[in-house]
Amino acid sequence: MNALTQTAALVAKDVRSELRTRYALNALLMFVITSVATILFALREDPASPEVLGGMFWVVVFFSAMSGLSRIFVSEEEKGTALTLQLIARPTVVYFGKLLFNCGLTLILTTAITVLYVLIFPQFTVQSVPIFAATVVLGSLGFASAATIIAAIIAKANTRGTLYPVLSFPILIPLLMTVMKSTARALAGEPLVSALGELQVLVSYVLIMTGGSFLLFDYVWKD
Amino acid sequence: MRAVKILSVTLITLVLIGGIAIPLSPVPQSWFEFPVIPGLEDKARNILFHVPIAWTTVLAFLVSLWYGIRYLRTKDLAYDLRSVSSAGLGLMFCILATITGSLWAKFNWGSFWNWDPRETSIFVLLLIYGAYFALRSALGSDEVRARLSAVYAIIAGLTVPFFVFVLPRMVSGLHPGAKGDVEGSGPVVQFKMAPNMRVLFFAGLIGYSLLFVWLLNLRVRTAQLEERADGQSE
Q: Which of B117, B126, B124 is closest to B176 using CA atoms?
């Protein structure tokens, strides 16, 4: 089997095991509903400005991602399958398999949040769909790329749950600041050209994080 | 190490005395007068302390990163000891830089914290190394701890270009060199310091850097002695 089919097999295995338990998906979606409901309670009286809602959007993405994305490596450690995986697959294959799975999960997550937001908040009107779509897709990929390598690190630690957001937050700050800014542009209905700078930052963030993780994954993964 | 000690103490003493005692003058006549910078006045003296400390913070974190990479390449725990000692010192200098900067911001910009790009960056630096030490305390064996914390430091280091080069261009700031600064030229600030101030400034840079070298040496030696004492008692 070459690396590509191996990666595909790994993703298929993770998808199958996820569909059986639905652990990560349920946790993520419940977390989204909980946090959006909390925002609704907080904003009940006065309607928030689109800018605030755009910022809140990524707050929800951050905390939901932190509740579910570490699962991918933690479950291997908990089930004791990490060693088998180390034996049968090369680290590169494992890394890209897990990254692809997390990318898919984050895209589902951001899509779900977008749908909920559009349904619930009348002020959340996306004036510029291209900017918003590009931001959400690139932002999701950026989230997944940083979250995957931190998940691999965290899987070896004793206090996984609390440590995960603590370790991820400083690394995600440049991403969060950029996506918040470009979401604000999308809500204000600016032309695609004006958000070009932000989108370039997002692309470079994804590339740097994925490249760095790819080079360092060996050290994290092999015991 | 003796030369490092003497030089560091001499230079820092020089900066302390010179930086505080040299009087300001609107038209400096001799080397013993600083020019008055409108808007900064006496507060300009802080540049001799705040900037060298911030510089040493960066130096300490780079040294820590360098030894982290060395550890990953050689798997020699002595490098990990150096890396973590340097990171600890970096955190100390980072807190000092935050305090000196925050005080300066209060009296020059009106508030202790303004979320200027540089303030955001140092906040992130504090968070990263806070997380770094939290991660180290959560890992059991020495090898795993050394390996994963080095990897985390490198991953976190990958975000640094965004804070140094990208963020100051996107958000307007208060530090020199930020977006909207007419004289700003990006991350490298043009030098327009008076010659006598410049001498003290570079004396500060070298003095604090040497202080870091000395402290790092002390920390590493103490840790080695502790290790040996532990080995003997067992």
A: B117
Q: Do A157 and B151 touch (CB under 8 A)?
A: no
- Kindly report the nearest CA distance between residue B108 and chain A, in angstroms: 26
Cα(B143)–Cα(A109) distance, integer angstroms: 36
Beta-bridge mates of residue A57:
none
Question: Could you please report the per-residue DSSP string of B205-222?
Answer: HHHHHHHHHHHHHHHHHH
What does each C-alpha distance from B139 to A152, A153, B170 come to in angstroms?
13, 10, 38
Domains of chain B and any CATH numbers = 2-233 (1.20.120)
Is B72 in Cβ contact with A213 (below 8 Å)?
no
Prediction pTM value: 0.88
pLDDT tens for each residue of A160-207: 778 999 999 999 999 999 999 999 999 988 888 888 989 999 999 999
ipTM: 0.89
Half-sphere exposure of A46 (CA within 13 A, CB side): 4
Distance from CA of A153 to the nearest CA of B (A): 6
Alpha-carbon gap, residue B132 to B155, rounded angstroms: 11
